[in-house]
UniProtKB/TrEMBL annotation:
GO biological process: negative regulation of DNA-templated transcription
Keywords assigned: DNA-binding, Transcription, Transcription regulation
Listed Gene3D superfamilies: 3.30.450.40, Winged helix-like DNA-binding domain superfamily/Winged helix DNA-binding domain (1.10.10.10)
Protein source organism: Pseudotabrizicola algicola
Residue span, HTH iclR-type domain: 23-84
Listed PROSITE patterns: HTH_ICLR, ICLR_ED
Xref: SUPFAM superfamilies: GAF domain-like (SSF55781), Winged helix' DNA-binding domain (SSF46785)
Entry annotated with the keyword Transcription regulation: yes
Record GO terms (molecular function): DNA binding; DNA-binding transcription factor activity
Name of the protein described by the UniProt record: IclR family transcriptional regulator
InterPro entries per UniProt: GAF-like_dom_sf, HTH_MetabolicPath_Reg, TransRegBhcR, Tscrpt_reg_IclR_C, Tscrpt_reg_IclR_N, WH-like_DNA-bd_sf, WH_DNA-bd_sf
Domain IclR-ED residue range list: 85-268
Pfam family, one: IclR_C
Amino acid sequence: MANSLRPRGRPKAFHDKTDQNTVQALDRGLALLEQVAARPGLSLSELAAQSGEAVATVFRALVTLQKHDMVEAEDGGQVWHIGPGAFRVGNAFLRRTKVVERARQPMDALMRDTGETANLGIEAADEVLFLSQVETHEAIRAFFPPGTKAPMHVSGIGKALLAWYSDMRVERILRAKGLERSTPATHVTPEALRADLAQIRARGFAIDDQERATGMRCIAAPIFNSHGEPVAGLSVSGPAFRIALEDAGRIGALVRAAADRVTEATGGAQP
């Protein structure tokens, strides 16, 4: 009886905006998505019984997932199946996994040829996300474990991607993230950064000259998809006393060649 008096659509914790409350709702939605994937063709009542949730709760979750094309209803809404949105999300993971897998050998060779740590990264939410690393055997070395993030404008990989992004996309990222100073060498004005990006495009690789961390340099090049769009980047990074600016041309050529091999191996094309 008490439940019937509660305002519909407003749970007891309606005013509770904690992360825990939000995550629990997301957890239920993802669990339901896994149910549909594991046993396609179940009805609403079957899904509710299997999940232990109320029919109304499951229906709202299904409609939300359907809105994003993650599930779809067949036979007049009687049974539910995985939708094209879930395929797109899964396919994005497969593409990323393919890049990680195909980049491994070029990264190994890059580490041996340069003596420095090789890195693979992508852009995620307007930042660089490092996916993989092959560490040098040197005692002093760069270390970016998978999952590490960095601002685009202070990262070799970030600048390599920005250099081949459209002006509109670069502008959007700069508006969203700004140009926070990390070291005295950081580009903190759009004009300075854009001048650097023009040089990167001209020579084919990016240089992070102690812009993220004093005493560390990074040289990076982009990896392209089948449309000639930059989707990832390869780099080598290490202490400035081992990666001298005089060697940037030689190392940059090695990094660009390795990135081009990954582009070719994943079915990409040069822009």
